[in-house]
Each structure stands twice: as structure tokens, then as C-alpha cells.
Amino acid sequence: MDTLKNKVLELAESYFPNVVSQRRHLHQYPELSFKEFETSKYIAQQLDLLNIPYETGYVKTGIVALIKGKNPDKKTFALRGDMDALPIHENTGLDFASKNKGVMHACGHDVHTSCVLGAAAILNSLKDQFEGTIKLIFQPGEEVLPGGASLMIQEGALENPKPAGIVGQHVYPQFKSGTVGFRKGMYMASTDEIHLTVNGKGGHAAEPHLITNPILMASEIILEVQKINDLGQQNNIPTIVSIGFVEGLGATNIVPDQVYIQGTFRTLNEEWRKDVHQKIRNICSNISAKYQGHVNADIRNGYPYLENNPELTERVQKYATELLGTENVKQLDLRMGGEDFSYYTHHIPGCFYRLGTSYPDQPSSGLHTSTFMVDEKALKTGISLLSWIALQELNH
To answer: For the whole model, what pTM was predicted?
Structure first.
């Protein structure tokens, strides 16, 4: 094992400069969800240079590639990298800052994709060291509903061959570069969207007897919906209902006809998830009846909860400890954020872990901010660990 591990580390060192170059190219030319056309072309070019066969056209921009070792039908294991960027104007001052105005890799998907490309180079060099097949999934549209993962699955990305398991890694500025984090079992929340249109009858603010005020209805709805958080706490179920947008285009003396409310609902319990959807609808119905108005409650199913397969995650954490040392493997807390990697975990055993990316000697900006940066040394950790996991799982 030590010989193979040393080989992985040597190859990671060798390929590291190229992976940094790939990451910087991707960072300079970010593309929004489901519009990753140039990104997809670039990934295909890099796979061509490695002579790794692939299929394009999944959800228009997605790519699935296969690296076949000895006895390729024995077992398949998958690595996933998401490709899309965010509608954020970059303010990092980097030499390779985004050239696409108003679009930025502020969530590290440039790192995710380049790490899978780097792992592909390592694993392609070690085809005689494993039995089975490694499937590389380059996925669009992680950032917006319905999530590129769900669409990739619908279009057969997990078939022919079907992986026995899948891993994905995500940048994590809370940890220093060189470290990684894991959590077995339930890890991330489902992410549903709340869209409410509160309909009343507008008019002059000095004539309340002639109007049905949607501002009042909306205010009561928001207060009642927020109480669902307390119910979740009472039942010991992690719950977040949060309203982030309210729009009623009236004025000091004008009551509008409509008010628009938008928010998010997150939890880690599927039964409770269904119950809360109905609770929100009931609140809207009861309050609108009280005021003789009407509410259109559009509650959109987002990503499901993400549950890391306990057995796979325990093995992967062991591999990480072997490769990086105990001191560099951390434990993660539950997160109420969401990830469309969760779709994969509802079909096959999956492990979604965190890759530390902050500089050792300076604070790091958070994800989804205009100043988010990564210590590129994390790329070396990312490519070596993805490779080591894949090798160990196929030899497991």
C-alpha cells in the first residue's frame, strides 16, 4: 500500500502545476448554471489530451468519462465535479480574476472541476494498478433548481456502468488548506423555496373600509410561518423557515393589490418536510379567509437532504487519514445548507466531504462572496485524495 500511496503523492506533485493552470483558466472564464458551454469544451479538451474517452451532451453541457483499469467490469466508482459559477461581480484583484462581467466562481466549482481533472490524470497513469472502472461526472447547474445532478441522473449518468459508490468534495474556507472534513450519516438539509402571492384589493390608504389590505395579510402570514421554527425545535427536528423577500408596491397613501413573499425552508426530516409544506398552505388559507383575500402558495421542492452513507464515509475517512495524517482529518457539524450532490446519495452510496482551502496565516472570505479566494495548495490535497479514494474503493 505504501508504494501505491507514494506513487499517488508523487504524481500529485507532478501534475499540481497543470491543475493550478486548469483551475485558473476556469476561474477566469466562469459561466452560470446550465450555460457552461465553454467550460464543457475546455474539459473535453483536457480529457482529449489524456486520451480518456467521454460522452458529452448530458443536460447539454455535462460530461461523463470512463477510466478503465484491469478487468473493467468488476466494479465502478464515481468522482463528481460541478462546473457552474454564480452571478457575483469578483473583487479579489487576482491576476486571473473573472473576465466574464458579473459572474464569478465564488463557490469553488473551478476547484472541484480541476481536482477531478487532476485525479483523472493520476488515475489514468495508474490504470495497471486497479481493477474496475472510474467514472468521472462533470456536472452543470448545481446552484439552481432543479439541480444538474437530478437531470444528469435522469439522462443516465449513473448507468452503463452503474457505480457502486460516489464521492464529491467541496471547498471549505473554515478549514486550512491541507485538511479535510467528514460526517457520517445525515449531513445537509433539504432546500425548498417558498413563493407566496398575497392578493387583496388595493386603494386609498385613508379608506380602509373599501379595501382588502394584502400588507396586513402578508404581515400575519410571515409571523405565523416563522413560528414553524419553534415547532421544529420543540420536536427536536432541525428546521429553518426564513423569509428573505417581501414586495408590496404601494406608497404612504396607496395600498397595493398584491404582496409577494419569498423565502426558504430547510430541514433534515422528510416527513416533517411534507408536514411543513401543508402547514404553510394552511396558514395562508386561514389568514386569507380572515381578510377575505386570496393567497397563491407555491412551495417548490428543492434538493433533498444529503445523507453520507455511513460505511462508505467511514472507509473514505480512513483513506484520508492514511494519506494525510490524523491531524489533517476533521469532523463536520450538521449543515442547514443544501447541495444537489444529495440526489446521487439517494440512488447509490455517496460521501460528500469538505476540502480545506484557507491560507494558514490570513482570514478567508466566505463562500458566495465577491472576495472569496482559495489557497491553491489545497488543489494538491484534492487531487491526491480523490485519486487515493478511487483506488482504494476499487481495490476494496
So the answer is: 0.93
